[in-house]
Every structure is written in structure tokens, then in C-alpha cells.
Amino acid sequence: MKLLITIVQDQDVPGLLEALGEDGFRATKLASTGGFLRVGNTTLLIGVEAVRLDSVLSIIKRTCKKREQGDPSPTIPFSRGGLGTRLEKISVGGATVFSIDVERFEKI
Ligand code: 2BA
Question: Would you tell me how many other CB atoms lie within 10 Å of the CB of residue 2?
């Protein structure tokens, strides 16, 4: 069994959870915050049999989009681009996925 720690943008969560549910996958949703942009995102814990891992990954690929987000750090006087200019847009997503081997799984 694998545990996918899957970090996605909040906007993609409804579609992703619906698609996972339709194919019989289960997930736990955690509110999280990105360490770089310091804005909210969502972390899903998805437990899946190893043979079905690719199905989950293809659902994630299909439902999670790449988007541009502004850097929310305070404006920096005399920074590149001129007085008080915000830093440029940053590309976020589709998803960041860590796949972990599960030594033992029990529902008690
Ligand atoms: P954040 O840490 O807020 O990062 C948002 C986006 O900012 C990243 O998008 C990436 O495009 C950019 N970014 C992050 N760190 C950077 C850095 N040191 N220098 C330049 N640009 C940087 P994604 O790569 O799609 O990541 C989206 C979210 O996934 C991240 O939000 C974070 O919550 C999580 N994440 C990504 N990689 C991770 C990792 N290696 N470990 C833990 N969490 C990770």
C-alpha cells in the first residue's frame, strides 16, 4: 500500500475529491499553508493499493491545474522593477505528490 501526501490548490479540491470518490478512492483533507507564498492550500492523504497508484496519479493530473499567483510578500522599495514594485507572478501547481510505502494499514 502507498500513502500519497498530495498538496493541491484549494480551487482544485472539489473536482479532485469527486473524481477520486467516483473511482472508489478515499482521501482525508487537511488545511495547509505553503511555506513560500504563505497562502492556504490543501493537503490530501490518499491511501491506495500500489497497483492502483497510477490511476490516482492520472486523476490528479486531470483535475489539478497550473496557475499564476502573485507573490504576497510586502512591497520592497527600490527593488527590481522600480519603487515599491511587487515581485513577479509565480507558477503554482498542478500538484505536489509524495508517495510513501505504508508498512502496515489497519482499520480498527
Ligand atoms: P508554497 O511553498 O507556497 O510555494 C508556492 C510556489 O512558489 C511553488 O509552487 C513554486 O512555484 C514557488 N516556490 C516555492 N518555493 C520556492 C523557492 N524556494 N524559490 C522559488 N520559488 C519557489 P509548487 O511547486 O507548485 O508548490 C505548491 C505548494 O506545494 C507549495 O506552496 C508547498 O506548500 C508545497 N510544496 C512544494 N514542494 C514542496 C516540498 N519539496 N516539500 C514540501 N511541500 C512542498
Answer: 16
| Ligand 1 pocket test, candidate residues 36, 88, 92, most atoms within 8 A of CB | 36
Rounded CA-CA distance 4/57 in Å is 9
Q: State in Å: Cα 102 to ligand 1 middle.
A: 25
pTM of the model: 0.89
In this predicted model, what pLDDT tens digit does every residue of 83-95 receive, in sequence order?
A: 445 568 999 999 9
Pairing of strands 2-8, 40-48: antiparallel
Domain regions of the chain by residue span: 2-101
* Interacting residues of 68 by C-beta distance below 8 A, sequence separation 6+: 89, 90, 91, 92
SS3 label, residue 58? helix
Query: What CA–CA distance (Å, rounded) separates 48 from 54?
Result: 10
CATH topology of domain 2-101: Alpha-Beta Plaits (3.30.70)
